[in-house]
Structures are given as C-alpha cells and as structure tokens.
Amino acid sequence: MSEVKEVKPKRELPLSRIMVNEQTAQVYAEAWAASEKGEPIGWSTAIFPQELCETFGVPLVYPENNAASISAKKLGEPFIEHAEGHMRYPINICSYARLNLGMADKIIEPGWEKVEPAMPVPTFLCLANNSCTQLMKWYENLSRNLNIPIFFMDCLYNYDEEEPAPHKIKYLKKQLENNIKKMEVLFNKKFDWDKFLEVQKRSQINRKLFNEIVALNARKPSPMNGFDLFNYMSCLVLCRGKASTTRIFEQLKREIEAHIQNGTSTYGSTPEAYRVHWEGIACWPNLGFNLKTLRKYGVNCVMNGYVTAWDVAYEPGDLEGMAKAYQCSSTNSFSTSSIMDMRTKSIEAFGCEGMLCHVNRSCKLMTFHIFVGRDMIEEKAKIPSTNFDGDQSDTRVFSEAQFETRLQGLVEIMKANKEAEL
Q1: CA geometry: angle at 413 spanning 412 and 414, to 5°?
Q2: Which keywords belong to this entry (predicted)?
Q3: What residues pair up with 128 in beta bridges, in sequence order?
C-alpha cells in the first residue's frame, strides 16, 4: 500500500503580489494585442530608457525579465536546447540569451501557437549596454535573425571615475535625442515632450518608493525575506513609468509597515539568526531550494546589489541628468573597486554579517569582479564571504550539495564571530 503524502496548502499571496501578477499580465496582453493589430512592439534590455517608448505609447516587453520568469517556472530548457542544438549557439554564452534566441526562432515558425511564456514577435529592439556588453551581440543576432532595427544606447565604461566625464554624458544625451527622432519616423508619431515630463516624474516617484521599501529591510529582524525584492523588482523593469507600479509599491509599503508594527516578517516563523548580502542575480530555477536551505540555517539575504540596479535617479525635465543616470546604471558602468565600495556601504547599512556570492556562469561581467571583490569586502566590511557556482537559467550548473556545503561554512564563521563578540 503506497504512502499518501500530505500536500501542504500554498501560502496565500499578499495583495501587492497579486497586483504585480495582474500588472505583468496586462503588459503581455497589451503587447500581444498590438502585435495582432500589426502595430509596433519592442523587445528591450532591462535598463534602456523606458521613458521613450512609454511616452510614445508603444508596448515593450523585456527578454531578460521573460527569461527569469520562464526559468523560475522551470520551462526554459526546451528553448535553451533549441538554441544550442538547432541554432548551434555555444554553451558558454549567457543562458538568458540562449533561452531568448531559442524562443525567437521558435515563435517565427509557421503554425506556432501562442503559449504563456512566449512574447510576441517584435518589430524593433531597444538596447543599452550599461548592464552587460554581451547584450550587444545578443541583440545583433536578434536584429539579423528577425530583420528588425535596433535603437542603441552606448553607455561608456567609467574606469576609476566616481563621476563620468562631461563628454560621456553629452555623448549619451545626443543618443537620447537621436533615438527620439528615429522613433518618430518608425512609429509615425511626434514625440510628446509634455507627456515625457510626466513619465519622468512617475518614474522618479516609483524609484523613490522602491528605495524606501528596500530601506525598511535594514531593521532587525527584517520585515522581509530578502528574496521578495526579486519579485517586486520586476515592476521597475516592466513598468517604471506607470501609475500601476506606484499603486503596487504603496500597497507593499503598507504591508511591510504592518509587519514592522506587528513584529512579523515575510521571512516566516524561522528566527533570523544571520543577515547576509547576496551578490549577483538569482538562480531562478533553483530559487525554492535556495530559500528553503537559507531558512534551514536561519540565514536571511536581507540585501542584494542587483535589485538596486534600477535606481535611475535624475531631475524630471533635465535630459542631461537623465543621460548621466543611465550612464551610471548597473554593472558595466564602474570598476570593481567602485562597486565594492557601494557594497560595503550597503553591508554596513543593513547589518550584514556575511556575503554569499553567486558565481553565475552566464553573467561573466557581474561574476568576474567577485573574486577580487571578495577580498575588498572582507578587508573593508570585516565580514566573511563565500562563493557558490550556479546560473540564472541553466540548471546544469547548479549543485544543491555545493550550495548547502558553502552556506554551512559561512554560517560556521558567522557563528564563531558572534561568539567572539560576547
């Protein structure tokens, strides 16, 4: 007689998460509707100036966000296999790229039926290289395979500069102006500068709200499981310039403030024994295992530098300031020492006792600085750190045993450090 396993009921989602799901569904519905009408629809990198297409009223969807969502649902392998097999892309390139290139090839096949994870075929691409240089080759391949144009923002690297040189800001401002002119031609529509100002204002309201929410996690114990930030981060990717994001963040902030008042946390009933900084992108296919194992050892990843990449701060109406903000966004903008200085400040502000570094096989740029950066963190922040191997979409790289073993080692050091302070 086979044993009947008890099925635990799923945890009820808070209202803010339900609102996120509804907003995401609306974004995809609008994109599919535009595609079916033969109207322009774009695919965009995550930190391209979304204010432009938002002003034009042209829908955008985001392959990186889409790949993360598909991977979290464990639906990415067929697309990755298609890219590596039929399309002959090598395994050493970004798994987001492989997944998306595989999907792009499948959705143009005759008789392809629309399924939940798929995005509609784009008519143009929006590309900014402020987060990754490999994006350029990824999008060049999309452009060639789909025979569509790219609107490109070339964000120059800042070596040891804390502030980008004036000529770099002017260079990006000119690109903004040039892309607006080219979009007017492609969309056959004049750019509405008054609406643009309103979109900028809304983007800054949402950026500020998200920062306020993240800052609440500095409390001890924290009112949030740090992985929650990955879920709400998508609002800034997909809808940074929309009022719907404002409503979501206002609701989330109320929920978190209620947790603080009630002494509860989305981390759950497990005591928060250790607070760590998570460095790098999430292992989306392994997110459940990561969270379960962290809770097993009482570890909460209260902060993550990745979720701050959408803190694109500027004064609405100041195009040069907006150009500077995008020039200074994300990983491909500053040196390892500059990034680790930011991490050190964050670690101190959030009371982190250790650093858990995801050596992401896909994201070379975000990963390579970890090996030098770890030493900087240990010296400046005076906390231990450890690495584990993984990937943002490719399940073949991650090892559950290694992840737990590395976490155990980190916990042992953090425990010893706490005991030495007594």
Answers
A1: 95
A2: Iron, Iron-sulfur, Metal-binding
A3: 153
CA distance 105 to 80: 11
Mean pLDDT, range 246-256, rounded to an integer = 98
- Nearest residue to 226 via CA among 173, 183, 290, 174: 290
Q: Say which residue the tokens 């310039």 belong to.
A: 241
Q: How far is CA 36 from the centre of its chain?
A: 28
- Which domains, from first to last, does the chain contain? 15-191 (3.40.50.11890)
**pTM of structure:** 0.94
Extended strands (E) in 32-171: 42-44, 60-61, 124-128, 150-153
Please tell me the total number of residues recorded for the chain in this structure.
422
Contact 69, 117 (CB under 8 A): yes
Rounded distance between C-alpha atoms, residue 136 and residue 128, angstroms: 8
Asked if 371 and 341 count as a contact pair (C-beta separation under 8 A), the reply is no
Query: Coil, strand, or helix at residue 84?
Result: helix
Q: Provide the mean pLDDT of the chain.
A: 92
- Is-contact 247 19, C-beta < 8 A? yes
